Amino acid sequence: MRVRTRTDDDTVAGDQLDPRDSPQQRVRDLRRRLEALLGIPASEGNALTLLKNGDEIFPAMLSAIRESQRTIDFLTFVYWKGDIAHEFAHALAERARAGLDVRVLIDAVGGRLIDSDLITHMTDCGVQVEWFRKPVWQGQALSPWKHNHRTHRKVLICDEVVGFTGGVGIAEEWCGDARDETEWRDTHVRVVGPAVDGLSASFAQNWAETGHPLIDDDRRFPDHELAAGGSVVQVARGSASVSWNDMATVFRVMLESAQTRIRMMTAYFVPDDFFQSLLLDAVARGVQVDLMLPGPHADKRVCQLASESIYSRLVEGGVRIWAFQPSMLHAKVLTIDGIAAVVGSANMNRRSLHHDEEVVMSVLDPVVARRLEDDFDDELPRCVLIEPRRWEDRPLRQKVSEKATVVAHHFF
């Protein structure tokens, strides 16, 4: 769905913002906070298309690949199996055979399940396929420190002017429309405009480790056309850090800036004490905080146990936690007050904030934020609300398992 930017004349029933603080002024203030604290300028005139689940995401990405005329850059953490994995590989290979410069970078851990025949087919057709940080047992000498830091980014850039990012991986698990446990729930964004440069930079940063040139004759670095009424977008990249990094700053600014409501979808939710306090502080100042997290079909039970260990503190403090029931919830979306959103590859956990290469787009556009809030609301009937008293009655063995996994998450 193509979204436009709300004009100054637009009003929304139910807004509870301070009348002295119009949505437009709040967007301007939030933009300056993010620009000043991250040192990354936001750009105007970006045309965004929000894509929900494989039925919308994969056709849009494949269409962009097949319509490309000069270059394709594709970076992913997950590349597994299924018909969709073959379809992407053959689409990329076809464009390389047509003479395009096609570069594919797959995380060596996240993509370990890919069919090797697909790699062979792509390389035989001229695709430059590289693995990000192969482990020692695959023949690359990496320090233990570096091996634990993966690229979790999901980025596709076509002809340097069309970009995609979000949570989706290339595997059959993401096909469909989240109707049952075989179809994962996710969100991706197609973007045209200056923000594509930020996505391109996230690819180039990881591609630089391969030793290949960053600049060749096929690269034009074009100026971007500005969409009338387009969105203001800031792209932030996160890398391994032992201290505060840009991912943490983005989340912190958003949570501290919220005045009425926070809505978050995230696949792996294990915030540290500081970010738990930010959520509780938001509730204390009157913000409605809703978190949508994986339910019975979580793909990583260890991560879910670590997440569940903090449910009691949050729900007792007024945070509402919704467990998504139909399938694995893999989206990474945060919205505040119906004015701004964060969409990208980063989860709210230690791995995203300290260990992995990530990329997110902060979208300062009430129309986009409202559409994502509507998506959140549409999923609520398919969720179970975590009730404080019932949660406290969970089995003792689960509580013990939760404590053990929390300790592990402080180190990995």
TrEMBL record:
* Class of enzymatic activity (EC top level): transferase
Q: Using the record's annotation, list all stretches that form the PLD phosphodiesterase domain.
A: 325-352
Output the CDD domains linked to this UniProt entry. PLDc_CLS_1, PLDc_ybhO_like_2
Example of a GO biological process term = cardiolipin biosynthetic process
Question: EC number(s) on record?
Answer: 2.7.8.-
> What keywords does the record list, in alphabetical order?
Transferase
Please name the GO terms that the record assigns under molecular function: phosphatidyltransferase activity
Xref: Pfam families: PLDc_2
Recorded coiled-coil stretches: none
- Write out the ranges of the annotated region (Disordered): 1-25
Q: What is this protein called?
A: Cardiolipin synthetase
Whose protein is this, by species? uncultured Frankineae bacterium
Which lineage do the record's taxonomy fields give for this organism? Bacteria, Bacillati, Actinomycetota, Actinomycetes, Frankiales
